[in-house]
Amino acid sequence: GKLTTFAKEFFGSVAFQDLHFTLDPRGETDALVVPKVWIPVSSSDLLSSLGTQSMELASDVLKAKISEETFQMKLCRIFPEVNYFDADHARQRDQTLAAMLSVYWLLSDQHEAFIRNQQPDEQLSRQSWAWIQDWMQTTVKLSTPEVLDATLVFMAIHALGKIKEFREEFSTGFSPVMHDSALAHILTWKPEVVPSFSRLDKKYQALIVDSLNVDFQFSQFLQAENTPANLVVIKEKMKKHGDEGFAFFCFRIFAQTCGKLGSKSMKGSEFMNESQFQRFRPGLEALMELKTRGALETYNNFLLLRGSKAMSRFASPEHQALSRLLTLSAAYDHQAGHAVCEAFDLLSNEERGSLTRWLNSDGITPGQSSYVLCDAPRFLANAKVNRNVGLPNALRMLLRVQQQCGAELMQSIHTRVIINLGSLAQWAKDAGQKRGDFLQAQLTVRSEATGDTKILTIEVSRPASSRSLIQTDFAHSDAKGSCGWCGQLRALLLLSLICNALALCLNFSGSASAFLLPGDGRSARGPAAVALSLLSLVLGLLLAWRCLQEARRYREGTVSLHETGPRQPFLSLEAWSLHPRSLSRNARHQYSRLLMEEDDTV
User: Once rounded to an integer, what is the mean pLDDT over residues 332-351?
Assistant: First the structure.
């Protein structure tokens, strides 16, 4: 069946009879013939022919001498790797073609073609398009057929590592999430199975392999899931390639992202609309800063800029950690940012200090490790919407994770630590109705080591649903604070009742008035009754306010309210708008989470 379908749809740079096949046993006497479209190409004549055709295509694009239809038609013939994607990988194939078409639209300055399938109220603006065109002309500089050809080759082959059969045949020991590293390994040791890469100049081969080896996902960078250590790898790998290398690396990310929704439509870039570009641009500019700035400075500048978009107040000296928390929690406005700041404030000085040191550990400063917090955004989001958990308890659980990981790393020399919080994120979503259940869960750590990287997976042992609330160390301090407030509530209620009773006696009882206001004081019974009534009203309002405060604290979860000491004042920052239109739109600009799909990383 597969062979029949393949023979019908076959189109490639080699003869059909030269293709390899494998037999997949289905029984004692039956087997399925599985064709392999990737075969080693070592013929210099064939590679030279492919190179000539590709250079002509690149030249035609630069000279605006080729239509979109002709360009798309030639892609499968000139870049045989596009045909490696079978029906099971049609999504990756469409994304690859959409990324290559995005390069064509961007280089030929076809704004209308680029936005034609975007919603009218979400289309990429002309101002943003002008910024992109200026960036391409002054920074990216795809001005020669050679560099454009290398760019198209990278777009054609970047997703090959996601093809399971291809990855497992030519590389071993690489999981699906390490598809970029697997592809880099294949290009290094078996380049003949990727003919478009094999025919490139050594300069561009090295640039593509180094770009794949950085193990960097731009979507994680935009959400602060990774650390400055990830940028160090980019800087080290790209430094030897100069400005051209940084520009090549950044443009590859941008073009790939433009084609992310190619499986839905290849009539323009459906993904890169105005809102997505405004979320994308700060990260892109931060990466470009790596040419002249250090990794730690670049990362901190990005966090400061990104965090300022959502912070209702800006904290010092904990502003860096708080900015990372805001980004991890997907806070894109002051309301969401205020909730994170409030939860952070409820920690004690010691707790804030521990959490700050952990979140700011960069993997660059001697003696520090970098901690990549995978699934932290999902964990914080689930904790926030679950009334039985709340953000304060989520931060306290992160402190427990820190302690567990610290114990695991006591004898370790690893500088890069990846912490998987998937199980904890699910527990934050499922925590039961009994207050305190979330913090009762027991945490264990499963560790793996790969080179200088330590992978720690946090596993959760959930408490039995029938167990009553167990007071934790955090809840003990909360209970003490609650008892103090209970005494205040009782005192307010008692005073209010006494004032109200005295006012009633003065108004309606002559004997009581004579007793309370003897002699000439009886003439003042009216004003005195009014004064006592007002005092009773004020005490009643104060009592209601305290009850509302207690109810709000109860909804936010069990937190520590012991004295935390004075903090440095918060500093207001002027919002910095990335919108290319007028500054007056800054107040209306809203952010939302970058659109991603689970298996679609950049």
Answer: 88
